[in-house]
Amino acid sequence: MITIDAAPGPVPIDPDRSALVIIDMQRDFLEPGGFGASLGNDVTRLARTIGPCSALLGLARERAITVIHTREGHRADLTDAPRSKLERGAASLRIGDVGPLGRILIRGEPGHDIVPALHPLPGEPVIDKPGKGAFYATDLHAILRNRGIEALIVCGVTTEVCVHTTVREANDRGYRCIVAGDCCGSYFPEFHEVGLRMISAQGGIFGWVSDSARILSAFGRPAAPRSFGSHTRLRSTN
Ligand code: C5J
Q1: C-alpha angle with apex 36: 35 to 38, nearest 5 degrees?
Q2: 228 pLDDT more than 50
Q3: Does 15 sit behind a cis peptide bond, omega within 30 degrees of 0 on the bond before it?
Q4: DSSP, res 222
Q5: Can you list the alpha helix ranges (DSSP code H) found in the chain?
Q6: Which residue from 27, 161, 163, 169 has its CB within 8 A of the most atoms of ligand 1, so it is best to mutate?
């Protein structure tokens, strides 16, 4: 067992029963010309997450910790996309339309791919999800259960949407979730900040919040270089 310093308090985890879950670090969310940009967002706000995510990914690979990647996206014929999702927002380019990164949020298109720095290795499960939560309409729960996983270290984008939805789903299924704050990002800094506080408030109502430096330190590793460091270290909001 190791103990990770987190809000609202230290959390013990068994590395052999833990997984690193990296949510939707796709070009469609992080690069100009993708889904995030089509909704009018400043995608450069998410770039700072790549370094710390990469540090935790390196740690997990070195320690043979289960790594799970997720991708939000839809079938090319859009049959798995609810009309309510396709119609939503005043997007200049909607899901399925052709943009600079190929068809927006469609599986197999360049924009649907994970950013090169965090690309999955063979053997690392990639969960293709049609919704915001990684447990909805996927086999994630089965994969985690079959590997005896009890705790999730969660990274990815965006904090208040797919990260939050997935953490809530995981919490209800009995997983202990430790969200690495500096490895998560939002187009809205205030949503990121409050999103993290919501997780750890009320005694950790549905999880814990830590950061890459403290997680690396729990594994006896030095923090990643300064630019990877956390600026989301949280006080307990208990
Ligand atoms: C969004 C996500 N924001 N991955 N998806 O639509 O958070």
Answers
A1: 65
A2: no
A3: no
A4: P
A5: 27-30, 35-38, 50-62, 83-87, 140-146, 164-172, 189-204, 212-218
A6: 161
